[in-house]
Structure formats: C-alpha cells, structure tokens
Amino acid sequence: MPLSDSNALLLRAIRDALRRILVHYGFWFNETLHQFGLPEALALEKEVGDRVLDLALLRLSQTLGFEVDNGVPAALGRLAPDRLEALLDTLAKLWLASDGIWFQAVEAKTSIHDAKRVNDTCWTRFSPFEAGRIKALLELPDAAADPAPLATLKTILAHRLYSRINCQEVVEETPHSFIFRMTDCRVQAARRRKGLADYDCRSGGLVEYVSLARAVHPAIVVECLACPSGEPQAAEQKPRQAWYCAWRFSLAESNPKSETL
Description:
The protein is of the alpha+beta class and about 260 residues long. The protein has eight helices and six strands; from the N terminus they run ααββααααββααββ. A hairpin with a 2-residue loop joins strand 3 (about 165-175) and strand 4 (about 175-185).
C-alpha cells in the first residue's frame, strides 16, 4: 500500500522515522566512542548535537509552519514558567522510564546480572555526558579553570534529570567535602510499595557518581556511605533511615580514600 493512500500509515511512518533518527544518532555516538574513546566522542557530540538540533528545528519549522526563537519553538517561549517546569519534569520521568524499560527487557532476555552490567556501562558514558551538557547550559568552568570544583559538582547535582524525579539534599559541608543524600528515590519507593526488596544499586551508584565527579574535576573523590543492599528488611527488624543512599564527595588532597571503577 503506498503511504499516501493512508493517513494512519503516514502517521505511523512519521513516528517510526523519528525513532530511526534517534537510534541512528546513538549508533554514531557509540561507534565514535569505540573508535576514538569517550573524551573525543563527548567533544564531537557537543558540536554535532547542536548542529543536528538546530537543523531539525529549522526543517520542522519550515515544514510545519511554526516559529523558532533562540533555538526552541516560539510557542514554548510563550508558556508560563510553571508549564515549562512541568514539561521538564515530564521529560525527566520519560528518561527514567526508558531506562527502566531497557533494564527490564535485558533482564527478561538473559538475567539481572546482564542488565546490571549494561546499566553500569551506560552510566560510565551518560554521567560525563550529562555533566558536560549541564556545564554548557549553565556556562560552568572546565576542570582546568575551576577554582571551586565541589561547588560546581553541587550545581550539577542540582540540575541533573534525577533532581526532577527524586528528592535529594546536601549535608555536613566542610571547605573540602560534602555529603549528598537521596531522601526519596522513585525506583526504590516504587519497589517498596510493591513489597519488593530494595534494588541493590551500589555498583551502579559508584559508576554513576565516580564518573560524574571525574567529569567535573579529577581531584574529586567519591565515597559510598550507604546504599540499598537488595536484602529484604521487614518493618519489625530495624527501621529504615530517612534516606536511601548517601555519598561523600571530597577533594583528593583532603581525603586519601578513593573509589575506582
């Protein structure tokens, strides 16, 4: 059947074209990473991503007849701040949902061990990518020119997609360290509502936070203070703390401890 003979088929083809573009972009990034390493792949993506998004908006605006202002559809710029905040929240939830769907698909296909292995590898790439995007968004300094890397890290933690999904806090700050705690975790809270044991996320958390910290500054040391173990914990045993995981970030010269990947 020719596509032009059916609006329904055309709409499905448009949806599928968007999917192919996203996957093809991911294949290019992954192969660039394989060929040249993560730092070079991230540097190239910084250039390519801006060009692709600008071109996409230009072509779509010409085809669909909407205005573009400062790199986004003008209609978005006319929305109230609370609507834009809600849109960002929705995008963050979509990101987490897609992550969970991939995890469940790999687990169902093979095992939770393989799903965790894929998950942890993804964090070694996504954490530095997200740190770089937040630096570009907020015009934060690169590591070599950063006089206060811990302050930069706190800013990045406050602007990650996770910050729109979970509740987090910074406590026990010193001039050379701070403790970061997750007081509400969407994934773990959902498991508890279903009566499931906490997900053992320590390995993923180490990869996630060590990769993030190194992307901010190589002198930042990460220490896991507490993380869900995956063991069931009945209410009559011992009460859970008021937070899910806790991490200490410090400068290497002030803390000899270091987590390695």
